[in-house]
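User: Could you go from structure to sequence for me? I need the amino acid at each position, not a summary. Structure tokens:
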């Protein structure tokens, strides 16, 4: 539990919450007090906030991916801020909800997820991908081991994953055994469900948000919450204005990723089988592209919804525009 003179300001916290609910009646704002102390005013314990505009924005314009993490509040009162961030259609972070809690423990996280489940109507979580952080395992160190770890984790398909795992086993059999023990199917791209349209396997999105509010985290709870609210309101407005200025068919960051694939497509050798099925040689790899199904055996197109370089080469072979083959979501 948090402790300190914060509780003398309980009435101010209650007034702040009441003001938020009046200004945004559809928002989810839940305050929990510690009733075991029998104090009057009650002792503050937890507070969850998810504004209606953020709920609506995530449901209508974001991928069904949630990244969660916690960070310390940098005051003498202690406590932590739990937050959840999504990814919008332009592949940028979309802060969704946050909560002030007594600390990172099973009870506070369970309460946080229950609040999130209710305000977003997540049900049993079907069709939702949740990314969380895990403590680093430092049994096997070294730059070479680190690079190999990421090579395995970032492999888009099981063939590349297997090859990278074999390389790790040759380098260090114990490390390979330990890697498999961490359930790679939970964090390696080769095992991700492509329907989520993301290749994110780290909590970088929410860590970016934690850095974005680092100054606010040094302030009293009321000033911190108001800073977060005001900063996000300004951020959403600026992002909206940027998108209104956009004249391209695709979102800017999606277009940039597609342009990168177009450049690599020059190194692909395309052999057509039918009007929609192609064999593609790229470096030492041989891949199959199906333009009708919008798939490639590399799985990158399947996972991101953006044509990979192999697919782009086939699209150019037919003298068509790659932008027309980007998934609408």
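Assistant: Here is the amino acid at each position, in order:
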């Amino acid at each position: 539990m948090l402790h300190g003179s914060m509780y003398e300001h309980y009435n101010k916290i209650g007034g702040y919450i009441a003001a938020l609910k009046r200004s945004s009646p559809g928002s989810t704002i839940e305050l929990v007090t510690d009733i075991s102390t029998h104090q009057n005013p009650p002792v503050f314990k937890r507070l969850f906030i998810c504004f209606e505009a953020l709920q609506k924005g995530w449901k209508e314009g974001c991928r069904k991916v949630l990244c969660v993490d916690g960070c310390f509040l940098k005051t003498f009162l202690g406590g932590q801020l739990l937050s959840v961030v999504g990814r919008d259609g332009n592949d940028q972070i979309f802060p969704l909800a946050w909560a002030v809690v007594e600390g990172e423990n099973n009870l506070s996280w369970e309460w946080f997820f229950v609040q999130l489940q209710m305000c977003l109507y997540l049900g049993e979580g079907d069709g939702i991908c949740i990314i969380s952080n895990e403590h680093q395992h430092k049994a096997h160190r070294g730059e070479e081991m680190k690079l190999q770890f990421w090579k395995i984790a970032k492999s888009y398909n099981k063939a590349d994953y297997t090859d990278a795992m074999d390389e790790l086993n040759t380098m260090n059999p114990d490390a390979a055994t330990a890697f498999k023990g961490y359930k790679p199917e939970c964090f390696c791209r080769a095992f991700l469900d492509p329907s989520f349209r993301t290749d994110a396997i780290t909590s970088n999105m929410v860590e970016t948000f934690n850095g974005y509010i680092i100054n606010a985290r040094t302030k009293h709870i009321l000033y911190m919450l108001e800073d977060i609210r005001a900063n996000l309101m300004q951020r959403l407005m600026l992002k909206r204005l940027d998108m209104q200025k956009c004249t391209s068919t695709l979102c800017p960051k999606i277009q940039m990723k597609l342009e990168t694939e177009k450049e690599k497509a020059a190194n692909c050798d395309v052999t057509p089988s039918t009007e929609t099925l192609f064999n593609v040689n790229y470096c030492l790899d041989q891949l199959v592209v199906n333009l009708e199904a919008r798939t490639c055996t590399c799985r990158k197109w399947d996972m991101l919804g953006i044509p990979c370089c192999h697919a782009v080469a086939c699209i150019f072979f037919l003298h068509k525009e790659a932008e027309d083959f980007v998934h609408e979501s």
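One structural detail worth keeping in mind: Residues 46 and 101 are 5 Å apart (CA to CA).
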